[in-house]
Amino acid sequence: MTEPSMTVVFSTRNRAQALPRVLNAFAGLTAPHSGWKLVIVDNGSNDGTAAVIAGFSHLLPLTLLSCPTPGKNRALNLALPELRGDLAVFTDDDVLPDTDWLVQLRAAADAHPEADLFGGTVLPDWPSPPPLWLSEQAVEFSVLYAQQRRASGPCDHADIFGPNMAVRSAIFAAGTRFGEHVGPDGTNPMYAMGSETELLRRLGTAGHRGWFAADARVRHIIRPEQMEERWILDRAFRYGVGEGRNYAKSLSLGLLVRLVAYRLAARGLAFLPPSPRRLRIRYRDRWLAGVASGRPLMPNTSRPG
Predict the structure, then answer these.
(1) In 158-250, where do the E strands start and end?
(2) Which of 110, 113, 141, 249 has its CA 20 to 30 A from that of 16?
(3) Treating both helix axes as pointing N-terminal to C-terminal, what angle do 253-269 and 276-294 enclose, rounded to 10 degrees?
(4) Which residues belong to any copy of the Glycosyltransferase 2-like domain (predicted)?
(5) Residues 212, 288 within the same domain
């Protein structure tokens, strides 16, 4: 039997009700000429998720793994020994790929041997039209919903988003792993976001080059609660925590001034009806609070005497 040339990986937790729609989309994929493998890691589900996945074993080239200890990156690391082929494709359990998704990623990897990191288009799959106050002018849909649209071509690691990313398998064979200190772990709803971002930034800093394949498209399922202001503000905070914890050096005076200014403005706007302006200010307030929460305290730079 011919070895597949690429492996798709995602982890899931307690998604028994939603997974059939996702797995049906995967079952409709056009296989690349060299074949593919799907590895799903059940990350401690207790709702029958594993049984739902197993029910698709006759439709998909499927390997099901179990990682009982919660932690998305822990689950992804568990899957790495199962990689087959030269391309590891990572996605999420709420993604609907276009039928030619893998064909497009395979073509990009074959056509651009100079690149080790690959990304593709991510579009929101809305449950209903977004309300007027939920505007791209107010908040970054890239942060909220992993939306990514751009032309094909060389790209920075920051252009590649978790629901649609691929990495040369040789990088993992050489020992690279996902950082288990970041991302959802089932213990803290205000976890530091940025699990795939942390890995990609590390690889980009090490000199690995990226390529964006615009025709490799997936849709990211948006749940109704993800269009509510409370969820959006919580996500802004988690995003800030990840930025502060992983990339900031210290808590600066400038950040403190902005934090106070946005906090005062956000409190005043909280009593007004929803609007793009209100969302923008309140979102920025929660993001700054997250950055401050994730950053170390400002070091004492004063001189003795």
Answers:
(1) 165-168, 210-221
(2) 141
(3) 140
(4) 7-172
(5) no
